[in-house]
User: Fold this.
Amino acid sequence: MRPTPLALALLVAAAVAGCRPKPKPGAALDAAPDARPPRADAGDGSAKPPVDAAPPSDDSLPASTSGELTTRARHLLEAIQKDDPELAGDLVFPRDAFLLVKDAPDPGKLWDLKVLAAFKTQIHALHRHTKGVERAVFTSFEVGQPVTEAMPRKHDLRRMLWRSKRSRLGFTIDGKPSHFDVVEMTSWRGAWYVTKLR
Assistant:
């Protein structure tokens, strides 16, 4: 007995549905924004963390002045006064962000040494070499100008960020104006962070 045209059409439709091509690797990540990226610990050391798919507003130029930045700058002066880098931890470029944006074989180790350890060393040095810093009174914080776009580049960044050189932490000691220069600040998610203090 020959199958009817309707039965043939149903058989063909079922066969086509079962023969769909498998999606290409990574397609699920593109299609599902909530999907987690694969782990970057393949064991051979060559895998790098995926670049954060942050909203476009995360790349916007941070304000040069804000209450939030002023508060964190006050923490920097307090850390220098008390010789305690932990007090200014909120002004250091975040480690998680560094892992996402730094083009390096081991960005975590690089952050530990070049960002955090250097920051701590420089806080201690500023405390030791600034006479009367314990009596310092915060006056201002100015982001250095001009602010420039740091474009993706091998051995540097994997995505564009904003950078500022020679920002200035202003204060007085016994009424006399003084300041510290911050060598480099880098933006992340609409805020400024120290990547090089001295």
In short: Residues 60-196 form one domain. The beta strands are 136-142, 147-150, 161-173, 176-188, 191-196.
